Amino acid sequence: MTVDIDKTAGPEDVPPAGPEAIKAIPVRHYGRYVSAVIAIAIFVSIIYAFAQGKINWGAVPDYFFDDRIIKGVGQTMLLTVLSMVIGIAGGILLAVMRLSRNPVTSSIAWFYIWFFRGTPVLVQLVVWFNLGLVFEYINLGPIYKDYWSSFMTPLLTALLGLGLNEAAYMAEICRAGLLSVDEGQTEASHALGMSHGKTLRRIVIPQAMRVIVPPTGNEVINMLKTTSLVSVVQFAELFRYAQDIGQSSGAPVEMYFLAAAWYLVLTSVLSVGQYYIERYYARGSSRSLPATPLQKIKANMLSLASWRR
Amino acid sequence: MSTSMVKAEGVHKSFGPVEVLKGIDLEVKPGEVFCLIGPSGSGKSTFLRCINHLEKVNAGRLYVDGHLVGYRQKGDKLYELKDSEVARKRRDIGMVFQRFNLFPHMTALENIMEAPVQVKGVSRAQARERAAQLMERVGLADKAGSYPSQLSGGQQQRVAIARALAMDPKLMLFDEPTSALDPELVGDVLDVMRDLAESGMTMIVVTHEMGFAREVGDSLVFMDEGVVVESGHPRDVLTNPQHERTQSFLSKVL
Question: Is B104:B113 a contact under the CB 8 Å cutoff?
């Protein structure tokens, strides 16, 4: 291991060549080897146990790229994306309303958050699904009129149920983000003659994003998994298709493993995406941008090779 | 009234039960460099923030360029201005903050371009050209693409001055512009301000830089506990203070 020593830090009377670079033997962390061996042993025994179980593993790859599964993956992703769009847009709106000086808008936002955060999403989904009992028709005057039951498709029910619930959570995340921006930023912007709206859009929200993005990534991943609930409103997505195949092919448990594997693949992809979005909003906040995953892997390999830490 | 850029008549300001300004009367003439000094908590910064309506005045009248700040008077009734009207008036008043308050997610050049483009509707190309000129004027032509976090405090403050100048203000407010700077960086910022004063800009400067006040200032006011204790030409007040409180303050800072 080499250490760069600033030349000016050395005493004045050293020879002009500067002090010799330190070549010390690094501390050996024997505990790490031991714990790695134990962890690998436990991991292998768990895998062995599953491999020995009465599970027909062959069924998983057989159906992994089944048309229905692929369709289900598509529907799951579509639902995740659309619900999060509703959630984020609604969340920003609610956060701004909640922080507004207008007591009417802030009370409405408070009430919305109180209601949608205070009831389980599964219950909300079922309520949306059964709202036809309250409203027989949907009647927007001359624009649109239909039976509620034919207006409320499973997709729309799922979207409203998930999206409106998500907006309540996103509102609190966005509010934390908006509050994290220094008040001096708003003052500077106002002093330049910028309106409240422009200050919010151009100055506050871009800075709030640094605080908003990480928990939002969490929410997206949560949403992806929560979409598995929407089978109760007759919307078919990954989990529902996996269940269906499981029942017809006689390998129900195998299909749950298949679904779990797909969810893992999707959340992994999302995590990578989140990393790059965070990197984008970090510009200007630190002197150099954080490394990309590839750069990181490279650096980790190097440090592993030399056991630097 | 047309002869004064800022005119304060019995300005009062309270934060809850604490009365910060207890009746300020003063007048700033166009082209004047007007220095406000005094111990911390004396209300200098608050008064400055009242001028562009970042703080609301509780009593008294405050005029900028002949117009009442924050209100419209009809007969003997006052009507609060709408946010958009307040914003329009702020365009003509530049402000420089103690802690710079540059927008950290924009480069230095983008910081300067922001308000002309967003508020005045200047084209981006035109704003960019003007911003580059201003960067040169404050001696930072080579830092256009840097983010604030990559600049020293003194450089950030000079960008902040350029940002305020980009709106072509009639009046510049400086709220302790050098107080957050390392001592060796103060000079660069004061040079820019001196240059600005020579160009004829009306400036109100809250400062602890007595040297700057003496050399550049046209008028000086010493404030303490929310009132104007002493005012006059900087040289007179600083070298020959009449009031006991001024004397004791100056003996501590000079």
Answer: no
Question: Which residues fall within 8 angstroms of residue B201, CB to CB, at 6 or more apart?
Answer: B31, B169, B171, B172
Q: What is the pTM of this model?
A: 0.80
The DSSP code for B71 is E
Q: Does B121 touch chain A (CB under 8 A)?
A: no
Pairing of strands B18-28, B6-15: antiparallel
Per residue of chain A (309 residues), give pLDDT as tens: 445 555 454 455 555 567 888 888 888 889 999 999 999 999 999 999 988 888 888 888 888 998 999 999 999 999 999 999 999 999 999 999 999 989 999 999 999 999 999 999 999 999 988 887 788 777 777 778 788 777 788 899 999 999 999 999 999 999 999 999 999 999 999 999 999 999 999 999 999 988 998 899 999 999 999 999 998 888 999 999 999 999 988 888 899 999 999 999 999 999 998 888 888 888 766 656 666 767 777 776 666 555 544
Residues A175/A181/A186/A192 CA torsion (nearest 10 deg): -130
Q: Nearest-CA neighbor of A242 among A116, A81, A63?
A: A63
Among candidates A100, A94, A260, A238, which has minimal Cα distance to A166? Answer: A94
Q: State phi, psi for A192 to the nearest 5 degrees.
A: -85, 0
Side-chain-facing half-sphere of B223: CA atoms under 13 Å: 27
Mutation target among A185, A190, A192, A278 for the B interface, most CBs of B within 10 A: A192
Using a CB–CB cutoff of 8 Å, tell me whether A208 touches chain B: no
Closest CA to A193 of B208, B87, B24, B29: B87
Nearest chain B residue to A284, by CA: B105
The closest alpha carbon to B18, from B61, B63, B58, B52, belongs to: B58
Handedness of CA B109, B110, B114, B117 (dihedral sign): positive
Q: Tell me whether residues A202 and B114 touch, CB distance under 8 A.
A: yes
ipTM of this predicted structure: 0.93
B44 touches chain A (CB under 8 A): no
